[in-house]
Amino acid sequence: MKVFINKVIPEIGFKLLDEAGIAYTVWKEKPILDRGQAIQFCKGHDAFLSVGQAGLDADFFRECKHLKVVALHSVGFDGIDIKAATENGVPVGNTPNVLNKATAETALLLMLTVARKALYLHNKIKQGEWGASQQPTQDLGIDLAGKTLGIVGLGRIGTELAKIVTQSWGMKILYHNRTTNAEAEKELGAKKVSMDELLAGSDVVSVHTALTSETKGMFGMEQFKKMKPSAIFINTARGGVHKEDELIEALQQQIIWGAGLDVTNPEPMSKDNPLLEMENAVVFPHIGSATKETRDKMSTCAVENIIAGLKGDPLPYPVNPEVRQGK
Predict the structure, then answer these.
(1) Is 238 a catalytic residue?
(2) Domain 2-98+291-311: assigned CATH number
(3) What secondary structure letter does DSSP report for 269?
């Protein structure tokens, strides 16, 4: 049994594969594999551990229906044709619940960095603009303590963020969900409201929803105009949730005060994107899970899915559990 891995994963993953006696091939070169190259590698292997591989569409799964398992080194699977995988009998697994705290911390970091214009001011130092001539009314940020945080998608990650800001800064929580989060309401005083109420009442709006047909492009000019002019927009979910051209316009016209993004559309972002030069915007290169501890956990989950799939056992972290194992 052999597994193909399209990027170098944390060492703990290789250790688990070695202990299980599973051979593997790792693509270590810098150029990212395209779909055709990935298919060719997968044809010579029994399993595929995918680290952000693009092109896992219907054609991929028709060509690679022999695979006993595809293990994603991620929580999200919106870029994967799960229906095609299921139709071709390929079980797919992901890495759920391992990056909740890390992603919540990233949202918090974006909130702070935007609110205090920290990155913009850091760059001013590099340009030699930190001096005695600076006025006390210049380059001021805004406080977050005691303000209202609106969370769109109060699931595990959103709840982690809510815990931090309520316990540390006394922030109030509004949230918009399809379902009620009774635990967050009881423990954190979170209040479920309509989307319009959340937009109008929040000082910071943080998105933690999956990318679906319903949420794609859900934040555009119409929504930004409903927010406070002093509000900050944060997205650590998926770039497709916001309309980037309209976000740029909203910032340029001072319709909202600022924005912090860990996700963009497309990724990677062009180096010429106007957001990178704005005083009131901060962009991270999708670092939500980028801590050693979290990536180790992700690698462990992905390899556990590989081992189970190659044994013909149910995946411990399945995306399409309806696929029968043991083919």
Answers:
(1) yes
(2) 3.40.50.720
(3) P
Choosing from 129, 222, 267, 277, the catalytic residue is 267
CA count, 13 A, side-chain hemisphere, 12: 12
CATH of domain 100-283: 3.40.50.720
- Confirm whether 286 is a catalytic residue: yes
What are 44's strand-pairing partners? none
Q: Measured between alpha carbons, how far is 273 from 9 in angstroms, rounded to an integer?
A: 30
**Of 73, 208, 242, 286, which is the active-site residue?**
286
Total-model pTM: 0.91
- Which residue, among 36, 47, 45, 49, has the nearest Cα to 8 in the 3D structure? 49
- pLDDT tens series, the chain, 327 aa: 999 999 999 999 999 999 999 999 999 998 889 999 999 999 999 999 999 999 999 999 999 999 999 999 999 898 899 999 999 999 999 999 999 999 999 999 999 999 999 999 999 999 998 876 778 898 999 999 999 999 999 999 999 999 999 999 999 999 999 999 999 999 999 999 999 999 999 999 999 999 999 999 999 999 999 999 999 999 999 999 999 999 999 999 999 999 999 999 999 999 999 999 999 999 999 999 999 999 999 999 999 999 999 999 999 999 999 997 644
Q: Which of 45, 73, 176, 238 is catalytic?
A: 238
